[in-house]
Amino acid sequence: MAEESRRRRRRRRRSTSEITRNCSRAGGTRAYAPTSIHDIADDLLELVLLRIGSPSCIVRAAATCKLWRRVIADAGFLRRRGSLHALRGHYHVRQRCGRSFTFVPSPELPREAAVDLWNHVDVYLFFLPLRIRLDGNLVLNDSRGGLLAFVLRCSLSIVVCDPWTEEYKELHPHYPLGFLSLYRAAFLLDADADMSNFRLLSVNLFRFLHNGSHAVEAQVFSADNGWSLLRRAATGDLILGANKIEGLVFVGRAENWLCWSTKGNNNGVLRLDLSTGEFSSFTLPRLANIDRSLSRRNLRVVGMDAGDLRLVRIAWDDLEVLRYVRGSGACVVERRVGLTQLAGLEARRDRCWSFYETAEVAGSVHFGLWPSDEYMWIFTVNNANIKVECKQGRNHYANRVFPYQLPWPRAIKLVTTAASIGNQAKANDQPQTSEGLSQDGTRVNKRARK
Predict the structure, then answer these.
(1) How many other C-beta atoms can be found within 10 angstroms of the C-beta atom of residue 146?
(2) 446, 165 Cβ separation under 8 angstroms
(3) Is the pLDDT of residue 439 over 50?
(4) Rounded Cα–Cα distance for residues 24 and 9 (Å)
């Protein structure tokens, strides 16, 4: 990049000298060559582009011209910019029969890229074998970067795939003999990994058939070492009086902590510390006159604050903000507010509040709660207060929402190709083609290839 910048400066100096000589010969005043954005040195242009905050705006800037794309795609820029992912859309997990998920493109996509996304990325995973993508067989568990992780209902396998490159791996964790699986989940551990170097965490809850005891375990898969057992522990040793847990419900992730509520133990929360590989548990403050298991509808992890875990819980009409103090093992109620009063609604006994997921609040500290099918309330929880906002509409797909992102440089390859195809179509006054890009950048007709 430095050599190219020096060549450009020499060309500008030669051009300026020629204009000055021509003006002197003609007896005119001294003149300078007109300047443009391309006359800015590469290091100054890089400083300007580093100030762009949104990854989507970075993608648009890289699609502007070859110079900007070269500066942004440089390894030094990416190292200084940090991890760069462009949001392509969201996968919505469905509760209805048939396909178990629906893909919704992001409204932030450039128009050309949004139109051409379906031709470049197989978002519905038709490249997977039919036995894997049978209706309802794929259960989406996690998404990081451009990878998706699924648990299969019809077997004990886990599938990790990349819709962009149309690659997939079917993984088979090591299970003990004589067990009944009560819960299985898969989590991707690295945000910038691809199919050649990803790491996967598998968490399982077993009931052993010979004595009826329950155990929870965590295994890690890596491309270099395959499967390795991280930890296995009896549930009775983790949660007091929980020798038999009916199941686990994942309630959130905060930094290196994964948390689950326990079915059959109404106030118990199981957590896994990824930094140490240790399972542990804590007990939430008991609710008066409420005897039910907690789930994603009434318990969520908000995040970490000064090393402590923060959660929110719905107790009938109240929203409780909880803090688990690391080290002490105590979980206390920081604040309790009435949801009906906070939303400015009339109190009614038939109104039932629950956490509700949408693409707008996925992965943030905002939570949507709805008492009906027509309106949704977005609550923002922070250290100082709780804010509320009313929005009309709801998530018609229900259940969980996972963002799908393309890591750099796939995102820029998608946008620049879509833009070039759109410009060529406009010039020829023809509709856009359905060609795509292979992994090495060559165009491939996906229909013909399949």
Answers:
(1) 24
(2) no
(3) no
(4) 23
Own/partner pairs, 340-344, CB within 8 angstroms, 24+ separation: 342/379, 342/386, 342/388, 343/377, 343/388, 343/390
Whole-prediction pTM = 0.73
- The number of C-alpha atoms within 13 Å of 431 and in the hemisphere containing its C-beta is 3
pLDDT at residue 84 greater than cutoff 80: no
Strand partners, 333: 322
Q: Quick one: how far is CA 59 from the chain centroid?
A: 18
Statement: residue 216 has pLDDT above 80: yes
User: In the sheet that 401-407 helps form, which strands lie side by side, from edge to edge?
Assistant: 101-105, 85-93, 401-407
Nearest partner of 386 among 282, 314, 286, judged by Cα:
314
Q: Determine the straight-line distance between the first and last CA of the chain, rounded to whole angstroms.
A: 40
* CA-closest candidate to residue 88, choices 50, 63, 120, 64: 120
Are 309 and 323 in contact by the 8 Å Cβ rule? The answer is: yes
State the amino acid at position 283 in one-letter form: T
* Vertex 301 angle, CA 296 and 304, to 5°: 175
Structure tokens at 215: 């155990």
Q: Output the 3-class SS for the chain.
A: CHHHHHHHHHHHHHHHHHHHHHHHHCCCCCCCCCCCHHHCCHHHHHHHHHCCCCHHHHHHHHCCCHHHHHHHHCHHHHHHHCCCEEEEEEEEECCCCCCCEEEEECCCCCHHHHHHHHHHCCCCCCCCCCCCCCCCCEEEEEEECCEEEEEECCCCCEEEEECCCCEEEEECCCCCCCEEEEEEEEEECCCCCCCCCCEEEEEEEEEECCCCCEEEEEEEEECCCEEEEEEEEEHHHHCCCCCCCCEEEEEEEECCEEEEEEECEEEEEEEEECCCCEEEEEECCCCCCCCCCCCCCCEEEEEEECCEEEEEEEECCEEEEEEECCCCCCEEEEEEEEHHHHHCCCCCCCCCCCEECCCCCCCCCEEEECCCCCEEEEEEECCCCEEEEEEECCCCCCCCEEEEEEECCHHHHHHHHHHHHHHHHHHHCCCCCCEEECCCCCEEEHHHHC
* pLDDT tens by residue, 307-322: 889 898 888 888 888 9
**Residue 279 is encoded by which pair of tokens?**
């399972």
| Local confidence band at 201 (pLDDT 50, 70, 90 cut-offs) | very high
- Read off the tokens for 205: 């809850």
Our CA angle for 106, 109, 115, nearest 5°, is 95
Alpha-carbon dihedral angle through residues 349, 297, 328, 382, given to the nearest 10 degrees:
-80
